[in-house]
Amino acid sequence: MARAAAAFDAFEPAALAASAEQVVWQPGDAALPSIYLSHGAPPLFDDAGWMDELFAWSTSMPKPTGIVIVSAHWETAPITITTPDPSTRLVYDFGGFDPRYYSMEYATPDSSTLGADVAKRLSGIGEVVNRPRGLDHGAWVPLKVMYPLADVPVVQLSLPTDRADILLRMGARLRDLREQGVLVIGSGFMTHGLPFITPAMIEGKVPGWSRDFDAWAWGAIAAGDVDALAGFRQSAPGLPYAHPTVEHFIPLFVTLGAATDLSSARTVIEGQMMGLSRRSLELV
C-alpha cells in the first residue's frame, strides 16, 4: 500500500521551486480575483491531478501579498477572525485518516497587520472577534498545495451565519483588498453529500442529485443571478442530498460579494471526487 500523501511528496519539490520563482503582486498590477474552491480533505494529498490543477491556478496569477479565506469548517458568530503566525498550530479537524496527515504543518507568516485591516472593514457589519486559532483543513489543505512555501500571510474568517445577504456584505467589504494584492477565497465544496456516498460513487459514478445541483449552481453563477443563488433552499435541485447541511455551499456568497464583475465567472477546476462536484471558480 502506498504511503499516505505519497503524491504530495512527489509533487512538492518542483512546486517549491516554481513557487520560489513566482512573481509577487506589485502595486499597479491588476486586482487579484475572488475565488471559490472545492477544498477536498487530506486525500487531496493523494490526488496528483487535482494538486496539479490547484497549483496551476495559483501560479496563473501573481503571488498574493495576503490571503483572506472563509472555510466551511469554522461556523461561529459573531464574525471571528484568526491571524496565525509561524508558531500557530493547525487545526486537524478530521478523523479516521492516516496518522501522516496529523503531522503535516503549514507555518505561515504573521498576519496580524492584515487581520487588523480585515477586522476594521468587517466591523461595519457587526462585532468582530479576533481569536487565536490555527487554520482548519478547509484552509490549510488547499493552501499547502497552492502556496507550498507557506510564505503568504493568511487570515481566516468564520462563517457567522448561513444568510446569503450577510455573507455577500462581508465579501463586499473585502473587495478593495483585491486591489492590494490580497486573494479572497471562499472554501467549500460544490456538492457535499457525504452521507449519501455509495460504492458506485467511490468508483466514479456521479448521481443525479450531484450533477443537477452542480449544473443549476453553475448556470446561476454564470448568469450572475445572485438572487437565484440566495434562494437555493427553495429552488436548487437535489439540495437535500447535495447539501444536507449548507456550510460547504455558502462560502460562495463571500466570493460573489468580493467580486467586481459578476458576469466574469470562470470555472477553473471541474470534475468529480467520489461523485461530488469539485467545481472551483474565479471572478474579477
TrEMBL record:
Gene Ontology MF terms: dioxygenase activity
Cofactor(s) demanded: Zn(2+)
One Pfam family cited in the UniProt record for this chain: LigB
Every Extradiol ring-cleavage dioxygenase class III enzyme subunit B domain range: 60-261
Keyword Mitochondrion: no
Family statement drawn from the similarity comment of this UniProt entry: Belongs to the DODA-type extradiol aromatic ring-opening dioxygenase family.
Protein name: Dioxygenase
